[in-house]
Every structure is written in C-alpha cells, then in structure tokens.
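Q: Given only this backbone (486 positions), what sequence would you predict?
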C-alpha cells in the first residue's frame, strides 16, 4: 500500500515520509522515533545530539561558498496525533501508518496520516541527506510532544542552538506564511458522584453519535463542525427534561486538540415512556443532522436497546453536570480585532467521561491574547465549579507575537512571488506552534513558519496534497539557497 507513495515526486521527500510513518510515534511515547531520527543523523556522519527531554538536534555544515550565510534552524515535531475511526482495527503502538494515493491526495486507511508534522520532518531529513542542494550551516531541530503539551519546545535549553533564523515547517496552507500563533491552556473539570440502583421498570439504550468530521481544534475551530460531546449532552438533556432519562455512563471525544467526532452513552428510561422517548429522540436527531448537513453530512445518531446497566449516576449530580456542559462555551469565543478573519480566542470541549462514580471533562482553550484566554478559562471554571467540580489549569503555553518587520519574512515573500507569480498570504494562525515557546529562550532568533497543504489534521480524514508537497519542496530548497549573509 505504501509503495505507491514512495514513487511520488519528489522522491526524497516521500521516501523519508514513508520511512518515518513506519515508526509508531504517539505523543508521550516517542522513544522509537527518537531512536529512528538519531540513527538517521549518525548514519549520515553528522553531529547528532539528544537533549535532556528527548529533542534531537542534527548539525550539517554549510556547503562550499555558503559559509558566510546566516546559520539556519530547521524545525519540526516528531510526534503525531493518533486518531482512528471506531470501525478501524489498528494498533498505533505497534503498526506503521497505512497510506494510499487518492488523486492529488495521500491518505491513511482509517487513521490519521501523520503529515502533521511528518512532512516537515521528512523535508528536513531530505535536506540533511542531500548532496546537491546549496545551504548554510543547518541545525535540524526535531522536537517531541508538540501535540499534547509542547514539552519538547518548553524543555529546550537556551544557548544550545547557534542558528540566527528558524524555519518552522508546521503550517498547513502552501500559499500562507505564518508569523504568529495562539497560546493555549488545558482546563480539566473533575468530580465524584454516588451511583444509584437502576430504577425498576426501565429500558436501557446505548446512544451513539458518530460520523462527525472532527479536525484540528485550532485551525478548524471556526468551521462550525459538530462537537460530539455537545451533541450527546443535548440529547441527554432533552431525554432527562421530557422523560426522566438517567445516565449510566458517557464517553466521548479523545485528544484535547482534536474536535471530538464520536460519543457513546448508556442510559435508562421508564418503560412507560419507551415509545414517546424513541419518537422524540428521532425527531431531535433529525433536527441536529439538518443543522449540520453542510458541515457534517455523515453524522449518525442512533439509540438502540441494550442490557440494563448495573447502576446510574445520582440524580442531582446528573442534572447539574448536563446543565454545566450545555452552558460551557465551545467553539469561537472572540475574533481578532487586529487581523482580519483570525480567531482570537476559542475553546474545545474535547473529552467527557462519566463512569464508575467519576466525572472528567477536558477542554483546550486557545487565544493569541493572554487576557482573553484568562477570561474564557475563568468562565469555564465558574461554570463547572457551580456544580461541584474541581477545576484545574495545566500545560499553559504562550502565543507567538507577529513581527511584520522580520528580515526572513521579506526573503520568503520575495521568493514566493518570484517562483509562483503571486503574493503569499502573511497570516497568524489559531493553532499552537512551537515558535512562541522557543522564542522565550531564543528571543533574538528570526522565526517564520510555512509548509505544504494538509487538510483534516487530527482526524482520520487527514490528507496531504501531492502537488502542494512538490511546490513546498521547491520553495524550501530555494529559500535555503537564498538565506541572507551574516
């Protein structure tokens, strides 16, 4: 299946991507990919360093006549988001990604593709092993754990890098040059509840919400895609209000930086309401699907009769937590006043688990303005604390302030216009890039971000454009040849 990917042009890029995708590399479990990239550098005879947190740095000296150019850091992250469809049999800890070509796109078979940020890693690998591309001194920086905390970037010590320019290869639209990004913080609400005996004369249902598009909770939060946790809660709230529905358990969503696509709940309803509940449920499900028919045409909402569970959650807590989830903000909170069409602040209700006497709700709040981020997290905190939850903030990371006077930006804009006969978009994004964090220890480093077109990142619909990847490679190699003098 992956052989057709290896035959794509440029082969140096796609073969390295295929090699990388053969290595399991979930966030927090990067030992195998760290070893892979370390051995790659050592086999090339290049200086290869692993720092104390697991980042890998590979240094390649300048080619002839390029020694007087400014040294460059090429940076991408090694980890990838692991998401799969519910009906896909795949073990991310043991299997490599199964890829195939679909027209102009490379896709994965029922899982995330890992083009975020694997294509950036592969491009750097291709430059490191090249013998015919002129370049200044290169420091290849491969960071870990970007997707679940950015601990690699946070743990990189100051003074370790010598480069004066940093090219981050983690942007997902090939006609854009990124000069800023949002910061973020995890918001987690927890509480315990008592379990109660299932009321007599009830019928149990398993409610399933699936088929949503999902996607990147930063880059695609403005698209209006359905959130499975909010949809499920809407169904539960309606069932409780009209028929006294009781919740046995709920599990929805996955990673905090992915818009949740699926949610599952086990509930019970008094048998006397069986027919009326089924009718009301189907009517509401139809209405929700109509609301989302343009953004999520494959949405499925079903309720099937199942074996009665052993217990349900206590009534008072159920009523409070469903109201809190209903009230908690999800999606765009505020648009930027300084840049057109830029989301300033947002929240993703990423995961909801209610089971065995425990509630856990996980959110990722993003903002390019620190005070606005604090405003939203306090709103979420208040919402959940009002129903007895303990709320904690963790994993906070800063945004990256745009510098429109960046010298390397001028180089990239001019080269793009020369190569492609149009001007690129100069943007800031609502995703979390590592530049803001790296800039804390390297404040004088001139940073920029760009990359090939990738769609559906953080979901099994992730796909990478083949033509765009060829364009990206051409652009990157031209930039490397035209780095300014010291």
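A: Predicted residues:
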């Amino acid at each position: 299946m992956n052989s057709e990917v290896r035959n794509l042009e440029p082969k140096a890029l796609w073969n390295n991507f295929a090699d990388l995708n053969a290595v399991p590399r979930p966030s927090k479990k990067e030992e195998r990919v760290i070893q892979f990239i370390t051995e790659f550098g050592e086999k090339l005879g290049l200086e290869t360093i692993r720092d104390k947190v697991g980042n890998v740095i590979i240094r390649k000296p300048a080619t002839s006549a390029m020694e007087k150019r400014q040294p460059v850091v090429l940076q991408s992250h090694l980890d990838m988001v692991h998401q799969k469809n519910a009906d896909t049999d795949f073990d991310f800890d043991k299997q490599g990604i199964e890829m195939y070509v679909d027209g102009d796109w490379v896709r994965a078979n029922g899982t995330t593709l890992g083009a975020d940020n694997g294509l950036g890693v592969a491009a750097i690998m291709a430059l490191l092993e090249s013998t015919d591309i002129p370049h200044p001194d290169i420091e290849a920086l491969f960071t870990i754990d970007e997707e679940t905390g950015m601990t690699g970037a946070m743990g990189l010590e100051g003074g370790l890098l010598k480069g004066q320019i940093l090219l981050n290869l983690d942007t997902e639209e090939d006609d854009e040059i990124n000069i800023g990004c949002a910061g973020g913080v995890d918001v987690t609400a927890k509480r315990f509840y008592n379990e109660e005996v299932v009321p007599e004369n009830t019928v149990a249902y398993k409610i399933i919400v699936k088929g949503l598009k999902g996607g990147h909770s930063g880059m695609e939060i403005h698209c209006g895609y359905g959130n499975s946790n909010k949809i499920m809660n809407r169904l539960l709230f309606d069932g409780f209000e009209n028929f006294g529905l009781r919740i046995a358990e709920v599990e929805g969503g996955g990673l905090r930086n992915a818009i949740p696509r699926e949610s599952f709940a086990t509930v019970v309803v008094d048998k006397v309401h069986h027919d009326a509940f089924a009718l009301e449920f189907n009517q509401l499900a139809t209405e929700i699907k109509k609301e989302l028919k343009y953004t999520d045409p494959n949405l499925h909402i079903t309720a099937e009769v199942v074996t009665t569970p052993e217990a349900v959650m206590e009534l008072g807590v159920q009523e409070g937590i469903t109201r809190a989830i209903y009230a908690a903000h999800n999606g765009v909170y505020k648009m930027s006043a300084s840049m057109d069409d830029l989301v300033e602040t947002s929240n993703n209700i990423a995961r909801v688990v209610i089971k065995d006497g425990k509630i856990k709700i996980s959110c990722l709040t993003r903002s390019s303005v620190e005070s606005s981020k604090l405003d939203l997290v306090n709103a979420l905190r208040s919402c959940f604390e009002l129903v007895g939850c303990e709320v904690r903030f963790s994993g906070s990371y800063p945004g990256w302030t745009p510098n429109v006077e960046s010298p390397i930006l001028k180089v990239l804009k001019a080269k793009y216009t020369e190569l492609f006969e149009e001007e690129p978009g100069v943007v800031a994004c609502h995703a979390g890039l590592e530049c803001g964090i790296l800039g804390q220890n390297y404040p004088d480093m001139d940073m920029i971000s760009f990359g090939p077109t990738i769609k559906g990142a953080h979901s099994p619909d992730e796909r990478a454009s083949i033509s765009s990847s060829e364009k990206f490679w051409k652009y990157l190699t031209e930039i490397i040849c035209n780095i300014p003098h010291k």
